[in-house]
Structures are given as C-alpha cells and as structure tokens.
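Weekly structure sync, notes
Attendees: PL (lead), two postdocs, one rotation student
Agenda item 3: pending single-chain targets
PL asked that the sequence for the first pending target be pasted directly into the notes so everyone works from the same version. It is reproduced below exactly as submitted, 363 residues in total.
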Amino acid sequence: MARDYTKYTAEGLGENLNKRKLVFTIVKDWAEKNNPSLEEIQTAFPDEVQGGKGFIVKESEVKDAKRFNMKEPLSIKNGLHIVMSNQWGENIADFITGAEKLGYTILKNTSNNPQDQQNSVDVNTSTSLEEIDQIIEEIIHGDLTTQENFRKNTINFINENNQYYWFLLAINNALQVWENKIDDEGLDLSVDGLHLKGRELNFNPYEEYRLFYNWREEKFGIEEDDDEPTSFFKALIDSFYDFDSHSDLISLGENDLNKFINLSKTVLLCTVCKECENDTDTDDLTNLLLGINFEDLPEINDKLNGGDISNEILEDVLETLDVSVEDYKNEEELWKDLYLLNYEDVARDILDNDVFDKDYIRS
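Predicted structure, written out during the meeting:
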C-alpha cells in the first residue's frame, strides 16, 4: 500500500506540517493556553485517539523512548513534564476530529504535482533529526522509485549544502535501526542500496570540517604561549565567517542562522570522530563536549537563546553518534551537582563504541 505523505496546515499555528509535527503543534498550543493538569490534558487528548500505544504521558514514566517525542517535552501545571506519542499514521484522522472539537481548524495540503509529493520526503535546510527519522520510515515503506529519488536527492543536497554533512550519518543510523527491526521482526522490507557513503560526496568533510583544539592545528587552536584555548563557537566563527566581531552572528537571518547551527553540528561531529581516531582520552573528550556553549559570548547567548541552540547541536550530534542522550540524564542526581547530562559517561560511551569507524571521510 502506498505511503501517505500528506502535510497539513493548522490555521494560525503552522503550514506544511507532517503528522507528528501537526500533533505536537496542536497539543503544545492547547497546553500553553490552558495550563492543564495531567488528567485534564489526557482528557482533551485521550489514549484511544492514538490507538493503544499511549498518547500523552509523564516524561519520567516513558518505557519505550522511541515511541515518544523525548526531545520536546512540555511543561504543564505544577511544572510536570510530559511527552507525546510520535506514532501517527491512519490514526491522524481521529486526532484531527478531536482537535477540531477543541476549536482548531486543520486543512489537508493538496497538490496535483508529483514533484511536490516527492519533495515531501526529501531533506531540506530546515529538516530536524526527528524529521529525518520520520522520513526514513516513510522511505522504507515507499516504492523503489521513491527510494532511488530520495537517495539521489540527498547526496545532491549535501553536495550543494556541505554544512549539512551530518545528515549523512543521521540517515545511515536511521537506516541501521530499520535494518535491525526488519531482521528481528522478519518484515517484508529492505534498506538495500539506501545507505549513503562518503565517497559519493564531492568534498572531503575530514579536510573541511575537522576542528581540532589546542595542540592540533594553528588554524583552529591557539598559539603555544596563549593561556586559554579558543572556544568552540569562537573558533567556528573565526574559521568560517568573515565577521567584524563574533556578535555579528546575531544579525544573521533565520535561514543563515539555521545553516550556522547545522554547520556547528557537522564540525562537532567531524571533530569528535577525528579526536577519537587520534586516541583522545575520556577527560579530553568530556571537556570538548562541555565546551559546546555560548558562555564566553554572553550577547549571543542572550539574544539567540544560546542554551537552546547549543543543547540542540550537542544532543543531535550525540544521537547521530548512536548515543541515547536520555539514558545519561538524571533530574534527581545532577552530574557534578550542575549538569543534567552526565558528560563523562557520554564520553565513555563514544569511546567504547569506536565512532571513528563510521564512513565520515570520502574514500
């Protein structure tokens, strides 16, 4: 059966939304307007709408993180954190019916142009990690033409937008998850030929995006007589932008800022991989991960919500490196009494799993 790639418009809230984003957008808006208790929001959006896997649950009680949107928890009454299901297909019709009863107007986007339908499952400059996972699920269930077009279009996209190189590993990871699922459950599906390879790129990420610290390279590090290393974002800005000052980052438009964020993910990814290949130790890798912040650029941190940006960059890269970020968070026992994420255990995970073996260098 053909996969449904329909996109939706939630009037006044957003356009061209896939199913998961539509659900998240509506529930988030309703929660912000009503500040509900858990019981109230579960009454407004009951489990039976989703179909039995659970719709809205406490973040702390999730047993199968892959079935819920763990990256975007919502805060409701009394500071309780909730997450919602990301499992939507034909059940989206029941959700729309319920949302319309709550006063929302939802329109199905229509197009008679086959190219528009194809574009709905291609990556683009605003694609998120969560959307990559959804796209891959749709591609796996698609026909051979859809799969071949996706593969070709993705390589072309990364070749034209080098700063989005991290997509390659994120896509391959999602494919690997499906490969394991297909084997475990004996599904009549295949990922043969869908994996992307570095040698298909027209640039070398190793040469272009490695960002070594301190002793590695003069271009990205410091002089031997300097007291402090250049911070991650300062080094990245100095290396890839011709700004008069670091604060010029604030003046970037939405599209260019998005490119900067994705450039940051690619640079961090290549840096971690190369550092591991060069036998870095746990302490050095921990310090590298701790340095992904705008703390030494307070104006940028304040104007651009730097904490949110740096968290997105770090967590997306870690997930791309097969690190399950949620496994290393503990709200009740902060690491070093400061950090929600245990960076030291994350560093050990990365080193134990030989991330540098991944195909991130064009061969």
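Discussion points:
- The beta strands are 8-10, 14-17, 56-58, 74-75, 81-84, 106-108.
- Confidence is low (pLDDT under 50) at residues 112-119, 212-225.
Action: rotation student to compare against the earlier draft before next sync.
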